[in-house]
Structures are given as structure tokens and as C-alpha cells.
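Supplementary Methods, section 5.1.

A reviewer requested that the exact input to the structure prediction be made available. We therefore reproduce it here, unchanged from the version used in the analyses.
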Amino acid sequence: MVAPLPPNEAPREDDSTELRRRSESPARAARKKAEASKRAEVSRRDEESATITTQPSLRLHSDDVVERAAVLSELAVAGGYDSFNLITRAFDDPASEVRNAAARALYELRADRSSSFITAFQEAFPERRRRIAGAMADSGLAAEEIVNLDSENRDVAYDAFALLFLMAKAGEVAPLIRAVEDSPSIDVRQTLIQLLAQCGQTEVLPAFSRLAVRQSLPSEVRSALMEAIHQLRFEQLKALPAVPLMPGTAFRG
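The structure derived from this sequence is encoded cell-by-cell as follows.
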């Protein structure tokens, strides 16, 4: 209970503060302390977020290629959407070392690796898509994912297929053609042939036609190549514009 003030004595400012302090219940004081702690934590996180978005952004404009590549690895560890944005912008860097580092950083950014690249390709303009695909090939990431196609872990194999499909869809098919030709795994070769056929990339037809008649290739691979060639040629025919009939000419079926 708060002690009464002496008669005719007006409370001073210090007295009011003391009265409020003494009248607070322990539960209310605990709540206020928790709220203050929460505000301090939010402030700390805001400061960290600002550091993530501003300091690396400045470093990505450094004249030092090694510095620009290094900060991308740090962003992959930091995680978050801000890091994702900075990493994908790095694919526009003029230095191939930085673009290759961006591909590696994007790969390590999330546990669901294919989703990172799907989002990156969806949000990118065509030229950036080509740069992403090129960095996947040049960084060695594509070669690793080709090996992962043969993984016994279905999730790993699925991620590998998804990443390579995105790369091929963006026009980067050379690493996949080489693997069709040289991979020690027949299953990997057949999977890559199916992948390229599903992509509808008709520019692989000359390479497929050349490999299909190579007797040194396993018969299963040559059969898969012939099937893919027929599929891609059919896609080519569907893409051709219809030939208009001359006026007054009836179609003869």
C-alpha cells in the first residue's frame, strides 16, 4: 500500500516518479522489462539487416574482383531474401569469376537448391538468364549436378535434374552434350538425352544426329538419341507457320 502524503505538501516531479515506481506491481514491471528487451532485440536485428544489405552492396562495387567474389560467399551464409537479391544481381558483373561465385552462392543459399534457381530464372530478364546458365557451366556446378543425376538419393537426383533443365532451357547445352558423349553411366546419358528433348532445344539436333550413328556408343544410348531426334523434329514441324491456301483453292485431303 502507498503511504499517504503529508497534508498540504504538493508532490514534486521526483516524488511522482517515485510513486509510480512504488505503485507498479511486480508483474507489470516484468512485462515492461520484457517489452524493453524485445525492442532492443528488434533494433539489433534491424541493424544487422542494414549491415547485410548495405555493407555487402558497397563491397560488390569494389574494384577488386576477389573482394566482389568473396562477399557472395558471405551472403550465402547470411541467407535471406536480401542476400538472394544481391547474389542474383551479381550475375550482371562483367567478371566471370564473380558470376561463377554467384552461381555457387545461389546454390548454397538454401537447402532447397532448385527453388533458388527457379526463382532466379523466373525473375531474370533473358540476358541475365543466359549469364546464370553460363555461370552454372563455367563454375563446375553443372558437371557436379550431372554426376548427381545418378545419386541413390531421389531428392539429390531431382534437384540435379531441375537445375540442369533450367540451364538447358536458357540455352546452355554444351556440358550436357559432352556428358551424353563421355559419361561413364548409361543411365546418366539416357537421362540427359530425355532432358534435352523435353527442353525442346532443337539446336542439339546436329549433335544428336552425329552421335546417333557413332557405333562406339552403347546401343541403348543410340536408341535414346534416335527417339529424341524424332521428338525434336516433330516439335520443329509444329512450330512452322501454316502455309496459306491460294484464294479460291479448295483443300484436297
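The two ends are 105 Å apart (CA to CA). These observations are discussed further in the main text.
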